[in-house]
């Protein structure tokens, strides 16, 4: 019942979003754990917009009826006042078509794209591991082998840097929390450099090798791609923010592996999990010696751990999380997009200093001995160890089956009649197959909300189907006959059962 109520509420918000931004590329029902974390910011900001607009309209209620242009200006003023940019996916070009090593969405297997094992302490030999049940392995070993916790199937390779990560020795300065983060500097007072060629990437790597600590943030585009791909890689030294155009330099970004696997440099990230996997998927880039600010906060039992909340609470800095859903294929970046991208790396660096200080204070209460005999900061070592366990995870491609469709029904709290369930599962599987073939996201092909509407209604005519799916993507429009044939087939199955 709780899942059904949550789904109904999210559906209402989705309909409001679609009225406000008809081409927003957002499918709220398909955002994991929407009720917590940074993703919830999209709902909070929609509420801000609605209440602000309502208030503005009420204030003008006693005036002479406004013209349509006055209404348009009013809406524009409110949007600017609450910093709510319109998100539109209007670009038709697919940059991934130009990538030299594009990942094939149709092939469910994935082999690591590591070209050169930089900073190696042990030679890596590719091991062709079959996809076999992994239920007999310990949890920590499951991470290393890339076992999918949902299907309990082993991925086809072991992390190439598992030896380096398992045998990582933290230097004294890192154990003490002395990462060499420069004094806090505002975004406006910090230089930003754009990296859009292989030569600039090589120069950047050479420059950053002398730093103890850098912050890293990865932004991907996923709406017009099945697997998604990295669009921007942000790096900050505190002195300079570097904006790497990961689309323009896609075929050269693998060289960043030299920097990111350097054990002498601490890489600071916020909620690194998915970002690490994106780097593996697109470039064969891995990570050694990571400090994840969000993981540290969770180990400190902090209640608010979303980036927007932490940034506001600790630095009194607002970040517009709406830009997380922007079209990151856009070039050049808008001013708002660039500011958002810089904040994700620049501000994370300074947050790490605050959190490390908190870890040090905790360790003063409970001094622990470090394994090699040194007396160190136990909380910091514990956090670093947990963060580097994240680095062991390996990328595997998503697998959608009728079984995952069944799980989705349960998560959404849906109660279906047999024919409705059959239709939902058929459409759920159909959109995945088409999305893989065309390298589109399932949200673009057929979002979950209209899919649910069709499953509940079991439309009798093609016109009714079109209305339920509106607005249709170009892909769904071109395949409307096929979609209707699926509906008719499911309804026919019901008639056969009745007549049996």
TrEMBL record:
PROSITE patterns reported in the protein's UniProt record: HRDC
Keywords: Nucleus
MF terms in GO: 3'-5'-RNA exonuclease activity; nucleotide binding; single-stranded RNA binding
Pfam families: DNA_pol_A_exo1, HRDC
Residue ranges of domain HRDC in the record: 417-497
GO biological process: exonucleolytic trimming to generate mature 3'-end of 5.8S rRNA from tricistronic rRNA transcript (SSU-rRNA, 5.8S rRNA, LSU-rRNA); histone mRNA catabolic process; nuclear polyadenylation-dependent antisense transcript catabolic process; nuclear polyadenylation-dependent CUT catabolic process; nuclear polyadenylation-dependent rRNA catabolic process; nuclear polyadenylation-dependent snoRNA catabolic process; nuclear polyadenylation-dependent snRNA catabolic process; poly(A)-dependent snoRNA 3'-end processing
SMART domains xrefs: 35EXOc
InterPro entries (UniProt xref): 3'-5'_exonuclease_dom, HRDC-like_sf, HRDC_dom, HRDC_dom_sf, RNaseH-like_sf, RNaseH_sf, Rrp6-like
Domain of life the protein comes from: Eukaryota
Coiled coil (residue ranges): none
GO cellular component terms listed in the entry, alphabetical order: nuclear exosome (RNase complex); nucleolus
Localisation: Nucleus
UniProt-recorded name of the protein: HRDC domain-containing protein
The organism of origin for this protein: Blastocystis hominis
């Amino acid at each position: 019942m709780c899942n059904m109520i949550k789904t109904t509420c999210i559906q209402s918000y989705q309909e409001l979003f679609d009225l406000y931004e008809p081409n927003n590329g957002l499918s709220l029902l398909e955002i994991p754990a929407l009720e917590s974390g940074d993703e919830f910011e999209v709902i909070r900001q929609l509420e801000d917009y609605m209440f602000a607009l309502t208030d503005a309209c009420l204030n003008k209620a006693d005036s002479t009826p406004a013209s349509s242009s006055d209404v348009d200006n009013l809406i524009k003023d409110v949007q600017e006042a609450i910093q709510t940019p319109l998100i539109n996916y209007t670009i038709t070009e697919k940059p991934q078509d130009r990538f030299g090593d594009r990942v094939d969405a149709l092939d469910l297997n994935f082999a690591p794209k590591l070209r050169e094992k930089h900073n190696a302490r042990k030679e890596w030999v590719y091991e062709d591991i079959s996809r076999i049940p992994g239920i007999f392995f310990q949890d920590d070993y499951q991470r290393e082998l890339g076992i999918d916790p949902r299907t309990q199937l082993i991925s086809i390779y072991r992390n190439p840097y598992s030896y380096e990560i398992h045998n990582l020795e933290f230097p004294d300065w890192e154990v003490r929390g002395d990462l060499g983060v420069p004094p806090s500097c505002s975004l406006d007072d910090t230089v930003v450099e754009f990296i859009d060629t292989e030569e600039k990437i090589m120069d950047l790597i050479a420059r950053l090798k002398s730093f103890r600590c850098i912050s890293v943030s990865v932004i991907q585009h996923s709406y017009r791609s099945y697997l998604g791909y990295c669009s921007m890689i942000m790096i900050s030294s505190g002195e300079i923010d570097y904006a790497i155009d990961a689309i323009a330099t896609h075929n050269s970004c693998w060289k960043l592996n030299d920097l990111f696997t350097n054990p002498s440099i601490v890489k600071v990230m916020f909620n690194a999990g998915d970002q690490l996997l994106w780097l593996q998927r697109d470039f064969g880039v891995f990570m050694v010696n990571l400090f994840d600010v969000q993981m540290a906060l969770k180990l400190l039992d902090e209640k608010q751990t979303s980036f927007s909340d932490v940034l506001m609470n600790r630095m009194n800095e607002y970040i517009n999380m709406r830009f997380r859903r922007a079209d990151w294929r856009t070039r050049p970046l808008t001013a708002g997009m660039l500011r958002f991208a810089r904040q994700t790396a620049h501000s994370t660096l300074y947050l790490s200093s605050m959190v490390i200080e908190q870890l040090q204070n905790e360790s003063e209460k409970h001094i622990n001995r470090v394994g090699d005999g040194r007396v160190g900061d136990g909380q910091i070592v514990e956090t670093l160890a947990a963060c580097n366990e994240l680095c062991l995870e390996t990328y595997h491609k998503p697998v959608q089956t009728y079984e995952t469709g069944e799980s989705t029904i349960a998560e959404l709290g849906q109660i279906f009649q047999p024919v409705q369930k059959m239709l939902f599962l058929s459409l759920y599987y159909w959109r995945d197959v088409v999305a893989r073939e065309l390298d589109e996201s399932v949200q673009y092909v057929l979002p979950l909300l209209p899919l649910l509407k069709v499953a509940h209604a079991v439309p009798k005519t093609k016109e009714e189907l079109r209305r339920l799916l509106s607005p249709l993507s170009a892909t769904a429009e071109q395949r409307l006959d096929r979609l209707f044939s699926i509906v008719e087939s499911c309804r026919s199955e019901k008639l056969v059962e009745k007549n049996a």
